[in-house]
């Protein structure tokens, strides 16, 4: 693959960058100069094989030779100026994500994404999870991160997966329950608590099946429900995926949760996950 080429034909509709290891600075190969107000982001392909969307104003800047340094590029990604390319089927187009559809775990339309819930599978291998997702009545989340850090996208970002369960009352953790909420919570009923929460919107409640993306990390649990430690490769992939999804969909980092925070699960699930 080529590296560090000069700025090319600005009339080509797709901007091509190179950030391969031999380049110290991302380079725009070609792009379509456009006005700030013009149009939606266009698809951008990077020479490392990844694909993103890019804000038109940035193409303007790049087309006149204002090339970002890797540090600036990271800032742009964090700010949402560079976004993942998600296709019309709701799948990420990027070499770091393996498209592995498991349609049986999809349930209904996911019309908005307000947060991300991080899980561990409870199984020892990614293969066993991918296999289980082919069974009737199987449940999973949108992504699966294997032991070696491989990211599988197993469900569309346009579809719900059932990965959360009954919500805990967020007002309890944040010490702001009102008298009505406290009255409901005085009788232990996870179902009533969940219904109380679902009458609210994020961030008054935690993200639910109806408005969150789920990420499963492969990790076994003991019979007592103690999960193994998330390894460094898995955490690196998790951090990349969360950074990309939050910047693409405009999700605040305050809306990323480990599963036991939002629902009644074993406390060690995803405890060692970091992002
Ligand atoms: Zn979970």
How large, in whole angstroms, is the Cα Rg?
21 Å
Instruction: Just give the CATH class of the largest domain.
Output: Alpha Beta
Number of helices: 8
What is the terminal-to-terminal distance? 31 Å
Q: Fraction of residues in helices?
A: 10-25%
CATH superfamily membership of the largest domain, which one? Peptidoglycan recognition protein-like
In the CATH classification, which architecture of the largest domain applies? 3-Layer(aba) Sandwich
The quaternary structure here is: single chain
Strand order of the largest sheet: 6-10-9-12-8-13
Low-confidence stretches: 1-40
What would you note in describing this structure?
By secondary structure, this protein is an alpha/beta fold. It has 2 domains: 10-84, no CATH class; 97-167 and 206-262, 3-Layer(aba) Sandwich (Lysozyme-like). It is 24% helix and 20% strand. It contains 8 helices and 13 strands. It has helices at 56-63, 70-79, 126-132, 170-173, 179-185, 190-198, 232-249, 259-262; strands at 15-18, 27-28, 42-46, 51-54, 82-84, 97-99, 106-109, 115-122, 143-145, 151-153, 159-161, 212-220, 256-258. The protein has a 6-stranded mixed sheet with strand order 6-10-9-12-8-13, with helices on both faces. It has a 5-stranded mixed sheet with strand order 2-1-3-4-5. Strand 3 (42-46) and strand 4 form a beta hairpin. The longest helix has 18 residues, at 232-249. The protein is globular and about 50 Å long. It starts with 14 loop residues before the first strand and ends in a 13-residue tail after the last helix. The model is unreliable at 1-40 (pLDDT under 50). Zinc ion (ZN) binds next to loops.
């Amino acid at each position: 693959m080529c590296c560090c080429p000069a700025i090319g034909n600005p009339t080509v509709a797709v901007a091509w960058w190179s950030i391969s290891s031999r380049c110290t600075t991302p380079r725009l190969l070609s792009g379509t100069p456009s006005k700030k107000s013009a149009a939606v982001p266009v698809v951008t392909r990077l020479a490392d094989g990844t694909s993103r969307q890019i804000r038109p104003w940035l193409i303007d800047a790049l087309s006149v030779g204002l090339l970002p340094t890797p540090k600036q590029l990271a800032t742009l990604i964090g700010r949402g100026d560079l976004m993942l390319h998600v296709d019309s089927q709701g799948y990420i187009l990027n070499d770091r994500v393996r498209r592995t559809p498991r349609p049986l775990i999809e349930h209904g339309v996911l019309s908005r994404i307000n947060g991300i819930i991080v899980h561990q599978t409870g199984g020892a291998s990614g293969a066993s999870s991918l296999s289980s997702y082919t069974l009737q009545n199987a449940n999973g989340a949108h992504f699966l991160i294997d032991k070696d850090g491989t990211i599988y996208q197993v469900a569309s970002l346009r579809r719900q997966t059932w990965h959360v369960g009954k919500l805990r009352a967020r007002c309890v953790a944040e010490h702001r329950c009102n008298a009505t909420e406290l009255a409901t919570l005085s009788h232990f009923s996870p179902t009533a608590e969940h219904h109380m929460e679902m009458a609210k919107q994020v961030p008054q409640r935690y993200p639910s099946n109806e408005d969150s993306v789920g990420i499963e990390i492969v990790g076994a649990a003991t019979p007592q429900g103690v999960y193994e430690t998330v390894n460094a490769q898995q955490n690196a992939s998790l951090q990349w995926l969360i950074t990309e999804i939050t910047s693409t969909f405009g999700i605040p980092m305050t809306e990323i949760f480990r599963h036991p925070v939002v629902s009644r699960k074993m406390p060690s699930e995803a405890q060692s996950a970091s992002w």
